[in-house]
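User: Can you model how adenosine-5'-triphosphate sits in this protein?
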Amino acid sequence: MEGCVLVRYGEIALKSDQTKKWWNKTLLENMEDCLGKNNIDYSSISVVLGRLIVYTEDTRNASIALKNVFGITSLSPAIKLEADFEKIKEKCLELSQDKGKKFRVSARRITKEFSMNSNEINEVLGAYLKEKLNLEVSLLNYDFEMGVEFLEGYAYLFTERIEAYGGLPLGVQGDVLGLVSSGIDSPVAAWLLMKRGCRVDLMHFKITEEGYQKYLKIKENLQKFSYGHEIKDYIFDGVPYLSSTKQKLCENGKEKWLCIFCKRRFLKEAERVCNEKGYLAIITGENLGQVASQTLKNLTLLDSTVKIPVLRPVLTYDKNEIVEMARIINTYQISKEKEPKCPFTPNYPMTAGSIGELESIKRILWE
Ligand code: ATP
Ligand code: MG
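Assistant: Here's the modeled complex, given as structure tokens:
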């Protein structure tokens, strides 16, 4: 009998054998990084049909830590034993003590060596536990579920299933650069690309010291989801460009263009770094219609200023949906902390900038 964590994954299972092999390997390495960084002792991780199994006695802590590894859909702290029905019954009896009155058995044969089928196991094991512990079977409304999975001659028993975030193993979709501020949206945008398998590095423009300090805490929290990749960041001082541009725009009665020039600057710097370092795309936390400057017209105009793709994963979410994700990453509380308002924002930002006008203002600014 051995303690272990059963790790389930989702979309990896749908891939060709070759892709599956690569993605499983990446997932395994990210899990090793996670267990190491969280100081969890384990003896090995095995890759078996449809599952990864982590051998450890610290099953609960291992499950909680591994929850943040993308590609995993759910985890169960489990006990592995020989697939002998008498032994299974005995162990299930022990595991079902003090877990509540109503229960169900959920058996699953991932490989089919065991002679009884899942329904028979559910029935016989269910009846046994019911009688021995004076329990009530309830398929829908239960206090606990006695899980049994059969795999390659062994049975894995568990009473807990921890839902994880799914997605793809971080690293299988290439490298991107996230423009991350101290606000709520851009950390979520970066997180969503990590969730889909990208290694995300960050770029931050320092406009206030308070904003920068918040950004540093945000980066630390994003790192807790970036197993397998140490997040690098690129920090720039945003103040010199913004002060001189604001002054020139004001002198020419074009102050309302400042937000567009500011975001254009961010994108152009990000594009330069992407080309130099090999990132495939830029990510921003822009959201359609959230503020005056984030109209579809403005976003299209901004896209025309760079050649590299700009990904906006939170474009279509409502604020409360973004907040919900920010709470998961633990960046919501950080982003909510007070900081001075951007000192450069004009009273009436441009909502429908045209390319023609942008070009003529660029000439005024000598850009
Ligand atoms: P967020 O959009 O992250 O909530 P915000 O609302 O302060 O922050 P916006 O004015 O909406 O930022 O800017 C649009 C996008 O530009 C941000 O989502 C982010 O991707 C990027 N951005 C804004 N400020 C910065 C900054 N100081 N450094 C890096 N990127 C930034
Ligand atoms: Mg925003």
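A couple of observations from the model: The mean pLDDT is 95. DSSP finds twelve helices and 14 strands in the chain.
User: Helpful, thanks.
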